[in-house]
């Protein structure tokens, strides 16, 4: 995929691909990747670093590439308290505004918001909206999940009504 992406974009510069795990426990459980056996002319086997985001800090991600701030939610423990998380989220939002062109900021903030929701299940939609100053309902995936929830609630209400003879 990396090579095909470079071909499609007509990119001819250096490339580094990595396997990124959200937690060290997933990295430990994964089978080692050896995409190509070493040969005399090809040594690609050592070019696939495996990284666990839970071992990084947001500052390290930003120092590597400011656009990687989108992965910052995975650098915090899942048990991070809400106050700390909300404070960090505001910092991430500010870094997105600094690192991405204005045309890309809404999409970047949506991705960041979805990562926050993925990592921290106890946060509400409203808390993420306030934290990142983004309306995740503009995302097709979030609208679809919302619609499915409404449909499920309607079916459940219909079943209850039928059960009660209403």
Sum this structure up briefly.
By secondary structure, this protein is mainly alpha-helical. It has helices at 2-9, 24-29, 58-64, 82-99, 105-119, 125-132, 140-164; strands at residues 19-21, 50-52. Strands 1-2 form a two-stranded parallel sheet.
* Helix percentage range: 40-55%
Mean of residue pLDDT values: 84
Distance between the termini: 56 Å
Strand order of the largest sheet: 1-2
* Structural class assignment: mainly alpha
Number of strands: 2
Shape: globular
Low-confidence stretches: none
Strand content: under 5%
Order of helices and strands: HEHEHHHHH
Query: How many distinct helices?
Result: 7
Whole-angstrom Rg: 21 Å
Folded structure, characterized:
By secondary structure, the protein is mainly alpha-helical. The longest helix has 25 residues, at 140-164. A two-stranded parallel sheet has the order 1-2. The protein has seven helices and two strands.
What keywords describe this structure?
2 strands; 166 residues; two-stranded parallel ribbon; mainly alpha; globular
Summarize the topology.
Elements: H1 2-9, E1 19-21, H2 24-29, E2 50-52, H3 58-64, H4 82-99, H5 105-119, H6 125-132, H7 140-164
Parallel strand pairs: 1-2
Helix pairs in contact: 4-5, 4-6, 5-6
